[in-house]
Amino acid sequence: MWSYIAKRILLMIPTLIGVLTLTFVVIQFVPGGPVEQAVHDLRRGNAEGGGGGGGFGMRAHTGVDAQQIAQLKALYGFDKPPLERYLSMLGKFARFDLGESYFRHQSVWSLIVSKLPVSISIGLWTFFITYLISVPLGIAKAVRNGSRFDVATSLIVLIGFAIPGFVLGVLLLVLFGGGTFLQLFPLRNLTSDNWATLSLGGKIVDYLWHITLPVVASVVGSFAIVTMLTKNAFLDEIRKQYVLTARAKGLSERRVLWKHVFRNALLPLIVGFPAAFIGAFFTGSLLIETLFSLDGLGLLSYESVVRRDYPVVLGTLYLFTLIGLATKLISDLCYVWVDPRIQFKQLER
């Protein structure tokens, strides 16, 4: 096992380097970089009456001269050759130094940590609600396969899957967020302005009050995949020979279902737990966050790309890629843990 884990960890290194290299190369050819944006801000500040020159600590002149541009390049590190900047980036990332944002004047680590509460809130609630509802529903559908219950629930979850989360979010705001009908839920942030003064019970209620609509908009579209995966997995197991043998021995249907079928049928779901759980933190919807005025990782990533905030872009990409590779390794290890018939030699093929 340890040799397999060591090999997988070693294989992560070229994958990480490849992702970072490709992104770094693309960045070199993208127009409107941070220097160009800073020059634009300086010129706009000068045109509006002179002054501070965009907050860079330089005296404004008519236009932007070559000295100012050279100072901006030095400020952002673009006075160095691309290869030197690339090697410096790899060295910092090897020490888990993600650098500092060009425009927010914060370290990338502190930015990510500050946005995590929103992503964790939406992600965790979406993950737990999805599995708590979808797994029992999928089992019930498999047991009642072909019944009216099966057909009706399939129709409901598929309709939910077909409705984009952003569209559902708009509908929820119109109905319950002070739109055309009722104002039952707040429109922005995870907590109220007076959250610090509330009691413990009041804080919990206030938090749940704020998170209800974003979570509903995010979770409805997730039911179909997990529900149908659970149903199909149970149906495949129910039709196998060992189930027929257990029934022939006189075992009750409940005992056959929960003792024999349950463990084997849940194998695909259990193996997918690590990826789904970790993904819940880092796959927040940009549209959902924007719609409900939630400042999370999705909005941070989008704004960083638009503003060409390369340390944030590369830092978050590095971190998310590393987490994704580690999650894939954990998922493979779960195969062996859940099903002893699978050996590490089989995973290496």
UniProtKB/TrEMBL annotation:
Database matches in Pfam families: BPD_transp_1
Family: Belongs to the binding-protein-dependent transport system permease family.
Localization: Cell membrane
Membrane topology, as annotated: Multi-pass membrane protein
Annotated InterPro entries: MetI-like, MetI-like_sf
Protein name per Swiss-Prot or TrEMBL: Microcin ABC transporter permease
Residues in ABC transmembrane type-1 domain copies: 116-331
An annotated GO BP: transmembrane transport
Keyword list, A-Z: Cell membrane, Membrane, Transmembrane, Transmembrane helix, Transport
Species of provenance: Caballeronia grimmiae
Regions crossing the membrane: 9-30, 122-143, 155-187, 207-230, 265-292, 312-338
GO cellular component, one term: plasma membrane
Annotated SUPFAM superfamilies: MetI-like
Gene3D superfamilies found in the cross-reference section: MetI-like (1.10.3720.10)
